[in-house]
């Protein structure tokens, strides 16, 4: 679908979208990463621009070209993503966390490349990363409830999709949670997706399998009425 002809229902609103997947350094040449391509986050940024929003896109290790009209901040690790998102969220009306943020990082980063001639490999100990979405949710609560006005999370689940999603929505304090079922060539690195948008205090919205732009538009359709 062409980007023209969309409603300008996000005009005058600042939107922050995170996209891609973080990389957590083991040493200067190796990292722990994930399979997120950034396609869904980029579709969200592109369609938000088309609907009139002022868009900041925080992109973690995405190889796609910058979407026209969005301000792009490129980051690598979860710590960098956190800093960029929290800074941009300060005066945002909507924050959408579409990035796959690593839950854990190597507890220590080796300054020099680990060499195989060093002998048997040492185990990599992991430390927990901060949960950025939950932090945005609790920060909003502390500040009295409306900054950002709309907070959107994503979740990829392999089983008990709706039950896990509902629990996650509540735990993170967000308004909408877009749940993808992973598997059968859906979600990671594919042009198509299918999703259920869980709504705090409302009925879920089913989005049929289709291009990631369609999922993005369904998200903005759910966000826009909450900005009025
Ligand atoms: N998220 C985040 N910071 C993290 C981990 C996740 O902001 N450290 C965000 C993601 O961007 C996504 C949402 O939280 O919008 C849900 O991520 P998900 O990985 O599905 O949830 P987790 O709480 O990490 O639970 P789990 O991976 O154990 O299912
Ligand atoms: Ca996770």
Structural overview:
- With 228 residues, this protein is an alpha/beta fold.
- It is built from five helices and twelve strands.
- It has helices spanning 39-50, 78-89, 132-142, 161-172, 212-223; strands at 14-20, 24-27, 30-32, 54-60, 71-75, 94-97, 104-106, 126-128, 150-157, 176-181, 192-199, 205-211.
- Strands 5-4-1-6-9-10-11-12 form an eight-stranded mixed sheet, sandwiched between helices. It has a two-stranded antiparallel ribbon with strand order 2-3.
- Helix 4 links the parallel strand 9 (150-157) and strand 10 (176-181).
- Helix 1 (39-50) crosses helix 5.
- The chain is globular.
- It binds cytidine-5'-triphosphate and calcium ion (CA).
- Cytidine-5'-triphosphate binds at residues 78, 97, 99, 101, 103, 129, 131-133, 153-156, 168.
How would you summarize what this structure contains?
One of its GO terms (molecular function) is phosphopantothenate--cysteine ligase activity. With 228 residues, the chain is of the alpha/beta class.
Helix/strand order: EEEHEEHEEEHEHEEEH
Mean pLDDT: 93
Main sheet record? 8 strands, mixed
The geometry reads as globular
Contiguous runs where pLDDT drops below 50 for at least 5 residues: none
How many runs of DSSP E, i.e. beta strands? Answer: 12
- Could you say which structural class the secondary elements and strand pairing correspond to? alpha/beta
Radius of gyration: 18 Å
Strand content: 25-35%
Structure annotation, total helices: 5
Fraction of residues in helices? 25-40%
What separation lies between the terminal Cα atoms? 26 Å
Strand order of the largest sheet: 5-4-1-6-9-10-11-12
List the ions, cofactors and other small molecules found in this model: cytidine-5'-triphosphate, calcium ion
Pathway: Cofactor biosynthesis; coenzyme A biosynthesis; CoA from (R)-pantothenate: step 3/5; Cofactor biosynthesis; coenzyme A biosynthesis; CoA from (R)-pantothenate: step 2/5
Region (Phosphopantothenate--cysteine ligase): 15-228
Catalytic activity: N-[(R)-4-phosphopantothenoyl]-L-cysteine + H(+) = (R)-4'-phosphopantetheine + CO2; (R)-4'-phosphopantothenate + L-cysteine + CTP = N-[(R)-4-phosphopantothenoyl]-L-cysteine + CMP + diphosphate + H(+)
Family: In the N-terminal section; belongs to the HFCD (homo-oligomeric flavin containing Cys decarboxylase) superfamily. In the C-terminal section; belongs to the PPC synthetase family.
């Amino acid at each position: 679908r062409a980007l023209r002809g969309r409603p300008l229902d996000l005009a005058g609103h600042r939107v922050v979208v995170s996209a891609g997947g973080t990389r957590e350094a083991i040493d200067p040449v190796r990292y722990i990463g994930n399979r997120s391509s950034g396609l869904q986050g980029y579709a969200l940024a592109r369609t938000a621009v088309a609907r009139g929003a002022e868009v900041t896109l925080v992109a973690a290790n995405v190889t796609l070209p910058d979407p026209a009209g969005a301000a792009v901040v490129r980051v690598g690790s979860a710590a960098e993503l956190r800093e960029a998102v929290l800074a941009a969220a300060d005066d945002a009306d909507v924050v959408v966390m579409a990035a796959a943020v690593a839950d854990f990082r190597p507890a220590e980063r080796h300054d020099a490349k680990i060499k195989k001639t060093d002998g048997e490999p040492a185990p990599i100990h992991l430390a927990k990363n901060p949960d950025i979405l939950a932090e945005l949710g609790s920060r909003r609560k502390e500040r009295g409830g409306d900054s950002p006005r709309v907070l959107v999370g994503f979740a990829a689940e392999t089983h008990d999709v709706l039950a896990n999603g509902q629990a996650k929505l509540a735990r993170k304090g967000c308004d909408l949670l877009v749940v993808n079922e992973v598997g059968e060539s859906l979600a990671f690195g594919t042009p198509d997706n299918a999703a259920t948008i869980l709504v705090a205090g409302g009925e879920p919205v089913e989005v049929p399998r289709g291009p990631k732009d369609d999922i993005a538009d369904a998200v903005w359709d759910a966000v826009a009425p909450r900005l009025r």
